[in-house]
Amino acid sequence: MIKHIWSVLCREALIDSETNNVSLLNIFERLEINISLPKDITIPVDVPITYELVSLWVKDNLTKEEELDINISIISPENEVVNQLSKKMVIPVDKARMRSRIKITGLKITKSGNYLFQIAVKEMNSKKFTTEAELPLEVVIHEDVKKSKTT
């Protein structure tokens, strides 16, 4: 059985090749966005940002390999899924724990509020996904609407 220990949203995760320790840079809890939009363009907007979702997983049986399907749903303040990502992870025999790193490019925003990163998993002998963690990201939009020129 595999167990979720922690997950963090950050700008970048650096892994030391000698020690295998991870450094999490610029952890996200709140994101402020300044947007200048022409009058005829409205939100939703894709914000060009690159970030990572890093998680630590442990398994209780060291004598067998474990496989895990990870599904990430990004849910808007209106409770709509604005993006979904998936990843397969294998924890080899003799490994008790493993980190997953999911690199994400872009964030579709619809309005200011809490965006929820929902982490669901399915083990290889299971038929359905179960939610293991939910990470809130507060997004604050500062919108500047440009007036279109009239002739």
How do the helices and strands line up, and which of them pair or pack?
Layout: E1 2-15, E2 22-27, E3 30-38, E4 45-59, E5 66-75, E6 81-91, E7 97-109, E8 113-123, E9 130-146
Parallel strand pairs: 3-9
Antiparallel strand pairs: 1-2, 1-4, 4-7, 5-6, 5-8, 8-9
Summed up:
The protein is mainly β and 151 residues long. It has a single domain, classed as Sandwich (Immunoglobulin-like), CATH 2.60.40. Helices cover 0% and strands 70% of the residues.
Q: Please state the average pLDDT score.
A: 89
Quickly count the domains: 1
Supply the helix-strand structural class. Answer: mainly beta
Question: Span between N and C termini?
Answer: 68 Å
Q: Could you tell me the number of beta strands?
A: 9
Question: Which geometry do the CA atoms define?
Answer: elongated
The second-level CATH architecture is Sandwich
Q: Low-confidence stretches at least 5 residues in length (pLDDT < 50)?
A: none
- The DSSP helix count reads 0
Q: Per CATH, what is the topology?
A: Immunoglobulin-like
Task: Indicate the percent of residues in helices.
Answer: under 10%
User: Any idea of the CATH class?
Assistant: Mainly Beta
Q: What letter string, H or E per element, gives the SSE order?
A: EEEEEEEEE
Instruction: Write down the Rg.
Output: 19 Å
Please indicate the percent range of residues in DSSP E strands (runs of 2 or more): over 45%
- Give a quick account of the main beta sheet: strands, pairing sense, barrel closure: 5 strands, mixed
Strand order of the largest sheet: 3-9-8-5-6
